[in-house]
Amino acid sequence: MSLGDKIGNKAEDLGGKAKEATGNVTGDEQLKAEGQGDQAKAGLKDAVEHVKDAAKDLFKK
Protein backbone atom coordinates (compact mmCIF):
# COMPACT_ATOMS: atom_id res chain seq x y z
CA MET A 1 0.00 0.00 0.00
CA SER A 2 1.44 3.34 -0.96
CA LEU A 3 1.88 6.10 1.56
CA GLY A 4 -0.59 8.23 -0.38
CA ASP A 5 -3.25 5.52 -0.09
CA LYS A 6 -2.64 5.17 3.64
CA ILE A 7 -2.89 8.91 4.19
CA GLY A 8 -6.03 9.19 2.07
CA ASN A 9 -7.75 6.32 3.83
CA LYS A 10 -6.81 7.69 7.26
CA ALA A 11 -8.08 11.14 6.30
CA GLU A 12 -11.40 9.65 5.15
CA ASP A 13 -11.66 7.67 8.39
CA LEU A 14 -10.92 10.73 10.55
CA GLY A 15 -13.38 12.83 8.56
CA GLY A 16 -16.00 10.16 9.13
CA LYS A 17 -15.32 10.14 12.84
CA ALA A 18 -15.68 13.92 12.94
CA LYS A 19 -19.01 13.74 11.07
CA GLU A 20 -20.26 11.01 13.37
CA ALA A 21 -19.26 12.97 16.48
CA THR A 22 -20.90 16.13 15.15
CA GLY A 23 -24.04 14.15 14.37
CA ASN A 24 -24.06 12.76 17.91
CA VAL A 25 -23.67 16.20 19.47
CA THR A 26 -26.28 17.90 17.29
CA GLY A 27 -28.69 14.97 17.16
CA ASP A 28 -28.39 14.85 13.35
CA GLU A 29 -28.89 11.16 12.58
CA GLN A 30 -28.19 11.63 8.86
CA LEU A 31 -24.80 13.25 9.53
CA LYS A 32 -23.99 10.52 12.04
CA ALA A 33 -24.84 7.85 9.45
CA GLU A 34 -22.75 9.59 6.79
CA GLY A 35 -19.80 9.60 9.17
CA GLN A 36 -20.22 5.90 9.87
CA GLY A 37 -20.43 5.25 6.13
CA ASP A 38 -17.24 7.20 5.47
CA GLN A 39 -15.45 5.17 8.14
CA ALA A 40 -16.72 1.93 6.64
CA LYS A 41 -15.52 2.94 3.15
CA ALA A 42 -12.09 3.82 4.50
CA GLY A 43 -11.89 0.48 6.30
CA LEU A 44 -12.90 -1.39 3.15
CA LYS A 45 -10.29 0.45 1.09
CA ASP A 46 -7.65 -0.46 3.68
CA ALA A 47 -8.70 -4.11 3.55
CA VAL A 48 -8.52 -4.18 -0.25
CA GLU A 49 -5.05 -2.63 -0.18
CA HIS A 50 -3.88 -5.23 2.35
CA VAL A 51 -5.18 -8.03 0.14
CA LYS A 52 -3.38 -6.55 -2.86
CA ASP A 53 -0.15 -6.32 -0.86
CA ALA A 54 -0.50 -9.90 0.33
CA ALA A 55 -1.12 -11.12 -3.22
CA LYS A 56 1.95 -9.26 -4.47
CA ASP A 57 4.06 -10.82 -1.72
CA LEU A 58 2.65 -14.26 -2.49
CA PHE A 59 3.52 -14.06 -6.17
CA LYS A 60 7.02 -12.71 -5.51
CA LYS A 61 7.98 -16.03 -3.93
What does this structure look like?
Residues 1-44 are annotated as: Disordered. Residues 5-57 form the CsbD-like domain. The chain has two helices and no strands. With 61 residues, the protein is an all-alpha fold. The protein has one domain (3-60). α1 (3-26) packs antiparallel against α2. The protein is elongated. The mean pLDDT is 93.
Number of discrete helical segments:
2
**Strand runs, count:** 0
Instruction: Provide the succession of SSEs.
Output: HH
Shape field:
elongated
Low-confidence segments, given as residue ranges, are none
What's the mean pLDDT score?
A: 93
Q: Which structural class do the helices and strands define?
A: mainly alpha
State Rg: 15 Å
The fraction of residues assigned to DSSP E strands is under 5%
Largest sheet, described in full? none
Distance between the termini: 18 Å
Q: Number of domains in the coordinates?
A: 1
Helix content range: over 70%
